[in-house]
Q: What sequence folds into this?
């Protein structure tokens, strides 16, 4: 049967503040265990948490970018549960009064826009990290590192508006892009700074929403897509047989490629929320909200549209270039020095992204300044170097930070534009390849490219390709 | 008057709090909690129709700290109160997995 799929995503993002949400402990990832904790984040008796202003600011900024209403008044609650990842036996979170609610995120799906509702954005503290013993003598124990405990965690809850695993994937990509543009989180899934749980239910057209299950333990966007697909398949299989869906939490098992019930391991949830008496309420003034709204950077979709309009980039190029704000900035600066946006975008999407990936460095650390990039592209246009040679020069620029002209001078890689020399080589190539001449005579244009390649080989790629092309055409016309 | 707290509720709360109570304790706490609740229930007699809910006893709001580093405890200090620790981590009974 054809079910309508309803997916809601709960995304947890660790905010990139220097210090924790309620104390001055560092949030740096990878420190030795239990070296970034203090009486406040350990919940020792008598301590008082005080909220980090930057974490509140980051949450409001995100909520504004997600078109949410900011609550004028909000407060924190204690979520009570007994699990050793929390030394206090409660997590400071938000319940009835989140910082923001009722927003949306627009995604583009098969060239069509769709709005995914954002139910709420709230702020809470992260929990510690539990490792289960593996050595034989440790098998009965778990070990806790509380460094992560108290790191500001922003929770972004979507409405169940997502109707396929692909849509969930696009939503997450778009959300992560926004969070990175806003510089509120590095969204690094390997380090756990972005985590995602999902709610899924299936509905027959015209009926009310079916029973939902909660899906956890997905550790990459790909796993989220796979986990959702597996869960949809499981649910529709059960419904087809006339069976009922049990409301429960399930875990994605990436090895078995299926979702597994947590039944028996999970208690009925009763968090007995109550207002956190140690924290004072927040009142977000219109003035603060407006100032933060004004401080928002150009967001990915606005930039995408502008790049299409202003630079005439194809949609694909605009998408790739605006994937990261830093790449987009680099592009814009290069265009200032070389006024052909499409050519600049080709070089960035091709060579620059490849080199960055190969050397595993970020664009902020690139040694090829936009000005030098512009100069390189001008040299190609002037015919001083061929495109292939330019690729070679660019990778040298990438490593050394030298300018194109400097490398050309040093390597003597100036393009061969001496007509007499080139004409001699063209004649040689024509003599050496009678079969190619024969097929050109029969109308096979491809062979021309082959002959150009042969001339380039003889000059080790230094020949000016346009000149070779012209010379070859002249010669062939005379000969044919 | 609201229903007094019963044995089932006491057992449930004890379970949520991971407390193991003996049958005698269950009886004792049911009685004590019931007394506490009925005492607090006295507040219901007050007319609060025009009184806004108290969010906090202090008339303060928006108390922030700047995102500035403060000294954390040393690893030794941090672990010093733990009943058990190993690998510089707090050792607890195995939970899941
Ligand atoms: Zn701390």
A:
């Amino acid at each position: 049967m054809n079910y309508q799929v309803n997916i809601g995503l709960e995304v947890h993002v660790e905010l990139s503040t220097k210090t924790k949400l309620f104390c001055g402990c560092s949030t740096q990832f990878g420190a030795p265990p239990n070296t970034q904790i203090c009486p406040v984040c350990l919940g020792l008796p008598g301590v008082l948490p005080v909220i980090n202003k930057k974490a509140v600011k980051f949450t409001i900024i995100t909520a504004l970018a997600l078109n949410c209403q900011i609550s004028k008044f909000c407060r924190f609650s204690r979520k009570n549960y007994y699990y050793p990842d929390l030394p206090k036996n409660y997590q400071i979170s938000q319940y009835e009064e989140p910082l923001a609610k009722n927003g949306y995120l627009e995604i583009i799906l098969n060239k069509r826009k769709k709005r995914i509702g954002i139910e709420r954005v709230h702020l809470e503290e992260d929990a510690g990290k539990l490792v289960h013993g593996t050595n034989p003598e440790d098998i009965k124990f778990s070990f806790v590192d509380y460094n992560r405990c108290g790191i500001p965690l922003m929770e972004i809850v979507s409405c169940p508006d997502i109707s396929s695993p692909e849509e969930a994937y696009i939503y997450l990509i778009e959300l992560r892009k926004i969070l990175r543009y806003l510089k509120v989180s590095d969204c690094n899934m390997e380090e756990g700074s972005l985590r995602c749980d999902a709610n899924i239910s299936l509905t027959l057209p015209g009926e009310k929403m079916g029973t939902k299950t909660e899906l956890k333990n997905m550790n990459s966007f790909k796993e989220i897509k796979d986990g959702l697909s597996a869960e949809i398949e499981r649910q529709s299989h059960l419904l087809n047989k006339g069976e009922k869906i049990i409301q429960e939490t399930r875990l994605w098992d990436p090895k078995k490629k299926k979702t597994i019930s947590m039944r028996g391991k999970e208690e009925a949830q009763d968090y007995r929320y109550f207002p956190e008496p140690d924290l004072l309420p927040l009142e977000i003034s219109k003035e603060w909200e407006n100032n933060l709204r004004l401080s928002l950077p150009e967001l990915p979709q606005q930039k995408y549209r502008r790049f299409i309009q202003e630079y005439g980039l194809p949609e694909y190029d605009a998408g790739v270039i605006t994937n990261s704000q830093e790449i987009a900035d680099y592009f814009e600066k290069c265009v200032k020095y070389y006024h052909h946006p499409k050519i600049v975008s080709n070089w960035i999407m091709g060579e620059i992204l490849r080199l960055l990936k190969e050397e595993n460095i970020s664009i902020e650390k690139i040694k090829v300044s936009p000005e030098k990039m512009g100069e390189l592209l001008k040299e190609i246009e002037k015919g001083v170097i061929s495109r292939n040679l330019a690729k070679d020069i660019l990778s040298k620029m990438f490593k050394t930070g030298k300018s194109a002209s400097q490398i050309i001078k040093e390597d003597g890689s100036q393009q061969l534009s001496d007509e007499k020399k080139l004409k001699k080589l063209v004649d040689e190539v024509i003599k050496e390849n009678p079969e190619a001449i024969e097929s050109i005579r029969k109308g096979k244009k491809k062979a021309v490219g082959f002959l150009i390649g042969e001339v380039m080989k003889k000059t080790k790629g230094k020949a000016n390709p346009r000149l070779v092309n012209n010379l070859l055409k002249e010669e062939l016309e005379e000969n044919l | 008057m609201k229903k007094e707290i019963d044995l089932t509720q006491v057992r449930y709360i004890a379970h949520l709090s991971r407390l193991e109570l003996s049958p005698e304790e269950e009886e004792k706490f049911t009685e004590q909690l019931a007394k506490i609740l009925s005492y607090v229930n006295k507040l219901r007699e007050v007319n609060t129709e025009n009184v806004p809910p108290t969010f906090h006893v202090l008339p303060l709001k928006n108390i922030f700290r700047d995102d500035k580093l403060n000294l954390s405890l040393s690893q030794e200090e941090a672990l010093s109160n733990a009943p058990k620790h190993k690998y510089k981590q707090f050792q607890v009974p195995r939970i899941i997995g």
Notes: The mean pLDDT of chain A is 91. The radius of gyration of chain A is 30 Å. The first helix of chain A runs from residue 39 to 42.
